[in-house]
Amino acid sequence: MIVTTKELFKQAYGNYAIGAYNINNLEQVVGLFRGNLGKTQKNEDPNDNSKSAPFIIQISRGARSYSDKRFLESMIRTADEVFPEAIFAVHLDHGTEEVCYDCIDSGFYSSVMIDASHEEFAKNIEITKRVVGRAHAKNIVVEAELGQLGGVEEDIVGSVKLTDPDQAAEFIEKTGCDSLAVAIGTSHGAFKFSGTQGLHFDVLEKIQQAVPKDFPLVMHGSSSVPKDWVERINNAGGELKDASGVSESQYLPAAKLGVCKINIDTDGRLVWCAIHRERFRDDPANFDLRPPGKVFMQAYAEYIIHKNAVLGSAGQLEAVRKAIK
Predict the structure, then answer these.
(1) Which of 45, 48, 80, 93 is an active site residue?
(2) Strands 88-95, 156-158: parallel, antiparallel or unpaired by DSSP?
């Protein structure tokens, strides 16, 4: 069932964060749905909902242009039929104004993100307000961004600029956006931090106090970049040196301060890369794309189950189902 992020955030606020996972292909879609339903093996108890979670599927501009956006949209529609128990939002990640309008007019997306964070404050407000007006006219919700993250992911290149709490309150009031992505020390890509650097919880707390009550905040660039997956990649011929991410121990404290959505893209790529490198290394005579694909779907589903556990969203699906009916 496709719902809006606003419906999901009402249940999550102050309690847990919802995983927002980027997808690019069939194997990611299948693994994602299986993982969020807590089902990785055919012989698992169908009545066990302790691991099932609501979630957000994110489609980036890069994913939309990888082949044709309709392929991804069709796969998601099919997954919705194959996994009717799932409850999720379909969200455009880091959209330009033009791409936001295309997604709004398509009638498929339940949520879009307008990223004008690279613009001056007044210009960001102006662009975001236009997108909000067009989206709300079709009951689509809007995520905006204020402040800038560092790092590189797809075509997103940022220089760090932490979100100003007072500006956040003004921005929300003037744009009417439904959620706000804030810069509190996270970074795009697989090389986020050096040393013991982490999130600026002091800034996050000030933002939560400044914005309207129960207003949902979003953390981008929040993959944990697990060292075990990085090691597996490097042991199979990769060269990811000094990769690091956001500690998973910081997810729930952030959720308690109003973060309802945590974006996770890089981690999924690491799982994909590790599985395929290992399969090519260990079975060099294989030329069938399906065996590594099957291994990846299973591994990705298991990783999603793990991620939802640390986000606190595991076991919340049935409560969400009852609340939105």
Answers:
(1) 93
(2) unpaired
